[in-house]
Specification:
The structure holds two protein chains of two kinds. Chain A is an alpha+beta fold. Chain A is built from four helices and five strands, in the order E-H-H-E-E-E-E-H-H. In chain A, helix 3 packs across helix 4. Chain A starts with 11 loop residues before the first strand and ends with a helix. Chain B is built from seven helices and no strands. The chains are: A alpha+beta, B mainly alpha.
């Protein structure tokens, strides 16, 4: 391999889920097809100006569901890690719930420390 | 140690508790990824196959010390220390609540010694207070 300025070319986005996200999926009764559409949406546009962001947690409403995700790099992959799904309610927006837990909880979860 | 949640228990939680559990699950997922990262990310020039060959925190420290004995290793070590300082500077809230074991784990992950980390925290504490 040549010694160009580029390290990796064509970093690919992939979508993973956490265990809690899987429980949310089961609770919401989301089909594999619906989940696949959500994953496609995230892969097609990992960062959207419409996303709400709290700390390092991004929230995007897809098909009427708030999808919470975190992004990080793993070698040649851009990992979009879905960490929760929730049906939003006007009385209790998802970001308000996150904010109530405090920035420290969000920071710790996002750094893994 | 707290017992891991089951799906049934999770579904019984309040909205706020569920959110905390989601963050906990994210933290665990990121931790697993970090632990599985190749050792070269901690500043070692040679590249052991996986972290499983390390086994323990003691092995981490040994690896870093060996790396630091070469000029390349010293540069790497300085870079790691700077990265660690930047991370902690950006996360003063975390620093304030960090317990010593947590600091030790963070220092080991960053590839620097616990003493250096403590020294830096003392400096940081002084600058925050002033």
């Amino acid at each position: 391999m040549g010694k160009g300025a580029l390290r990796y070319r064509g970093v690919t986005p992939v979508v993973d889920t956490t265990e809690a996200a899987e429980w949310d999926i089961a609770d919401l009764g989301l089909s594999d097809t619906a989940l696949d559409r959500i994953a496609h949406n995230l892969k097609a546009l990992p960062v959207s100006p419409a996303d709400r962001t709290t700390g390092q947690i991004h929230i995007r409403e897809i098909e009427g569901i708030d999808v919470l995700f975190h992004m990080h790099r793993e070698e040649r992959l851009q990992v979009i890690l879905i960490c929760g799904l929730r049906r939003p309610t006007p009385e209790e927006p998802t970001e308000a719930l996150l904010n109530r837990l405090g920035p420290l909880a969000i920071l710790r979860s996002a750094t893994g420390i | 140690m707290a017992k891991p949640l089951t799906q049934e228990e999770y579904l019984l939680l309040s909205e706020e508790e569920r959110m905390a559990a989601r963050l906990g699950s994210l933290q665990a997922a990121l931790q697993v990824r970090r632990d599985a990262a190749p050792v070269r990310r901690r500043g070692v020039t040679e590249e052991p196959s996986t972290v499983s060959s390390l086994g323990s925190e003691q092995s981490d420290e040994t690896t870093v010390t060996r790396a630091a004995s070469t000029p390349d290793g010293k540069r790497q070590r300085r870079r790691l220390l700077m990265e660690f300082k930047t991370t902690l500077s950006n996360e003063k809230a975390l620093v304030r609540v960090s317990s010593k074991p947590r600091l030790r784990r963070a220092a080991i992950k960053a590839g620097i010694s616990e003493e250096q980390a403590e020294e830096f925290l003392t400096e940081l504490g002084k600058s925050s207070a002033s």
